[in-house]
């Protein structure tokens, strides 16, 4: 009794008969709990709808004008907003990103400044969801369940940027793969690096492209879906730069030097971004102060 319910552990001189019996009668508490739940949902809905986004309408329904509650704003479009109901069933571009806005912003704010799309692919012209036969085969190969495979396929279609007519499939090429490792605000593209090459080879298994089967299989290794011995063998191949079956001192030194170059470039990008942000903040402070406009210069 004490192990299962520590707070009911027997004290000195007590017996189990001294502990009050705990009974559970669901028919007594269910209506009360249900009423509390319904009241909570109604209260939350009323609290949310108290926020009114003036002059902003939902682009997919006609009854939400203006939008009440959560406003979902597409940062990749000039002017596209959704209400909370339409957000759950929208047919808008999958690779576009929505910002959640609870507190209304001024109508003349900078929200209409279109941001570049972060994904390298465009899932709309691609094939429909995975065929059942393909899903079943990959489920056995990768040990992902069908829901995980569907989620991975959505991620893949947003990244795949090239169509192979011979194979009749979309793939991720090296340019799109390396772009995922660079900050979107970086001033320069990532320089060629052997670490990127080995990572790409990990996903593509030596080919020039990454199809969805390659993508799902590599992530199965990373997410511990494969047998540990198979995962160790795959990792070993990544460290074995010259494919001689051994990891020597030269392989380790090449890897460390390549990581050092990546770290230096990442630090340079970070310093540049922080400097730009600091400069912009300084200009705004001067513009809102009583100092002359020429003071920053």
Automatic annotation (TrEMBL):
<dbReference type="InterPro" id="IPR043145">
    <property type="entry name" value="Znf_ZZ_sf"/>
</dbReference>
<keyword id="KW-0863">Zinc-finger</keyword>
<dbReference type="GO" id="GO:0005509">
    <property type="term" value="F:calcium ion binding"/>
</dbReference>
<dbReference type="Pfam" id="PF00569">
    <property type="entry name" value="ZZ"/>
</dbReference>
<keyword id="KW-0479">Metal-binding</keyword>
<dbReference type="InterPro" id="IPR052260">
    <property type="entry name" value="Autophagy_Rcpt_SigReg"/>
</dbReference>
<dbReference type="InterPro" id="IPR011992">
    <property type="entry name" value="EF-hand-dom_pair"/>
</dbReference>
<keyword id="KW-0862">Zinc</keyword>
<dbReference type="GO" id="GO:0008270">
    <property type="term" value="F:zinc ion binding"/>
</dbReference>
<keyword id="KW-0106">Calcium</keyword>
<feature type="domain" description="ZZ-type">
    <location>
        <begin position="53"/>
        <end position="106"/>
    </location>
</feature>
<protein>
    <recommendedName>
        <fullName>EF-hand</fullName>
    </recommendedName>
</protein>
<dbReference type="InterPro" id="IPR018247">
    <property type="entry name" value="EF_Hand_1_Ca_BS"/>
</dbReference>
<dbReference type="InterPro" id="IPR002048">
    <property type="entry name" value="EF_hand_dom"/>
</dbReference>
<feature type="domain" description="EF-hand">
    <location>
        <begin position="227"/>
        <end position="262"/>
    </location>
</feature>
<dbReference type="InterPro" id="IPR000433">
    <property type="entry name" value="Znf_ZZ"/>
</dbReference>
